[in-house]
Amino acid sequence: MASTDQGVTSPTRARIDARTLRQDRWWLAPLTTFVVFSAFVVYATVRAFMGRDYYASPYLSPFYSPCLGDCVEGASDFGQPFAWFPLSAALIILIFPLGFRMTCYYYRKAYYRAFWLSPPACGVAEPHQSYSGETRLPLVLQNVHRYFWYAAVLVGLVLTFDVFLAFRPMPAEYAVGDGETSGIHMGLGTLLMIINVVLIWLYTLSCHSCRHVVGGRLRHFSKHPVRYRLWTWVSRLNTSHGRWAWYSLFSVALVDLYIFLLATGTIQDVRFF
Amino acid sequence: MSYTLKLRIWRGDKEGGEVKDFPVEVSEGEVVLDAIHRVQATQAGDLAVRWNCKAGKCGSCSAEVNGRPRLMCMCRLSDFEEDETITVTPMRAFPVIRDLVTDVLFNYEKAKELPSAQLGPRDADGKRRMAQIDVERGQEFRKCIECFLCQDVCHVVRDHEDNKEAFAGPRFFLRYAELDMHPLDTHDRRELAQGAAGLGMCNITKCCTEVCPEGIKITDNAIIPMKERVVDRKYDPLVWLGNKIGLRNKDDAGRTEV
Ligand code: SF4
Ligand code: SF4
Ligand code: FES
Ligand code: FES
């Protein structure tokens, strides 16, 4: 694809027709991102609109938590203020994690490259004629990211609460082997939810806005020793922010899938105790 | 152990040019710049190439090796297969002068537009003081050798000549961030960074970080923190309200906007 006269083939530049001279498989990373993200978006959309099979007591799917709409019995631990909402209850709350991830600095990099090809890879000319970055609507709205972060902390707390609930004994119909235990229970679902919530927290706390809020915004670290200490911790997590972004994406889908399979009766929970 | 390297070099000037073959004898342990020099010594005495230190510290020998912005003196031949063709071209974001030499004036113009540090009054004993942790924070940014590879790879100007006017580029965002984090500087450059320097044009796709030979985390440690600081100044209604009702962040006190 020939680039425009504004780019690497513009008049003052060294005359080279190729849009890139890279010989490595530079397209592999954006392609992978494109395929995986698309798959996730399709899966999440289908699941969010389904409006059922999101609760297999005591497990609640993270896509539906907190379940504030007209949810199945046992799923609404925070009441049902939106019981009138005609569509799937997931749609009420998914806007927050969705907005959080869409405005995330890491995801922005990933989807600008993979979906918008701006640029597809470093040193590979982008196909667009003009470019204004994040200076105009709608992209200037990326600057609200910190507000989604505040919301994400709340969502993280709710998901953590769900993990505690996932230790509740299961109802009799799910009981396997020698029957229901009294007191707490732990199954594969509980374990998956623990892993998921840990990854969600790693992702949320490694956020660049978090890094800014806890201490990055300061000009005098020396006058704020506690915030400086917090900042060094967040900074350390932040170096792997992209990794937590991916892992938590997978874990959230996996937990939902597991609960879907339980709720539809396709599989039975693996019980540890 | 020596072998014949399949080297290709772009030759020409602003009127035009092309990539030409220069098969050249090289030995193990050499870098691309060595091969270029041998071509210059044995095959093309008029080959134009800019270099100085051969140690990755002067930032002169910036070029593109197989399409990737690199310092030629730090680009080891052992990173390539012996039968691989290596193509060396000048940086493709800047006007070419001749062969591998480009005109990097753009960067110096941008440097001029950046207000330098304006320190506050001295302490009573005539000294200025900074705590060690505050000094350390900016050290990463000071590793910059001004090779301008980050400026070269940045798609904002590489792919859009018309953006050069309005965009300072990653090397200067580094400087904006360093000064904005400086406890003694009295200028507030946040508005300037977003406006005149075009920080908002950066879409944090991290190519600058990928190519920086000094390993500076330009995007994570300078650009994104600077974007967050700009949000404080321009886009966050809560910060705005806090300033209005006097809940001012004292950490910012004593700065004037430039
Ligand atoms: S992260 Fe921003 S400044 Fe760096 S190369 Fe990408 S667009 Fe340019
Ligand atoms: S920031 Fe890195 S890539 Fe950019 S000019 Fe400085 S040393 Fe070179
Ligand atoms: S969540 Fe990725 S930067 Fe905030
Ligand atoms: S010659 Fe100085 S950096 Fe390469």
UniProtKB/TrEMBL annotation, chain A:
Keywords: Membrane, Transmembrane, Transmembrane helix. The chain crosses the membrane at residues 26-46, 82-100, 147-167, 187-205, 244-267. This is Uncharacterized protein. It comes from Nocardioides alpinus. The lineage of its organism: Bacteria, Bacillati, Actinomycetota, Actinomycetes, Propionibacteriales.
TrEMBL record, chain B:
Its cofactor is [4Fe-4S] cluster; [3Fe-4S] cluster; [2Fe-2S] cluster. Gene3D superfamilies: 3.10.20.30, Alpha-helical ferredoxin. One of its GO terms (cellular component) is plasma membrane. Keywords: 2Fe-2S, 4Fe-4S, Iron, Iron-sulfur, Metal-binding, Oxidoreductase. Pathway: Carbohydrate metabolism; tricarboxylic acid cycle. InterPro entries: 2Fe-2S_ferredoxin-like_sf, 2Fe-2S_ferredoxin-type, 2Fe2S_fd_BS, 4Fe4S_Fe-S-bd, Beta-grasp_dom_sf, Helical_ferredxn, SDH/FRD_Iron-Sulfur, Succ_DH/fum_Rdtase_Fe-S. CDD domains: fer2 (cd00207). It comes from the Bacteria. The keyword Oxidoreductase applies. GO terms for molecular function: 2 iron, 2 sulfur cluster binding; 4 iron, 4 sulfur cluster binding; electron transfer activity; metal ion binding; oxidoreductase activity. Residues 5-92 form the 2Fe-2S ferredoxin-type domain. It holds the Pfam family Fer4_8. The keyword Transit peptide does not apply. GO terms for biological process: respiratory electron transport chain; tricarboxylic acid cycle. SUPFAM superfamilies: 2Fe-2S ferredoxin-like, alpha-helical ferredoxin. Belongs to the succinate dehydrogenase/fumarate reductase iron-sulfur protein family. This is Succinate dehydrogenase / fumarate reductase iron-sulfur subunit. It comes from Nocardioides alpinus. The lineage of its organism: Bacteria, Bacillati, Actinomycetota, Actinomycetes, Propionibacteriales.
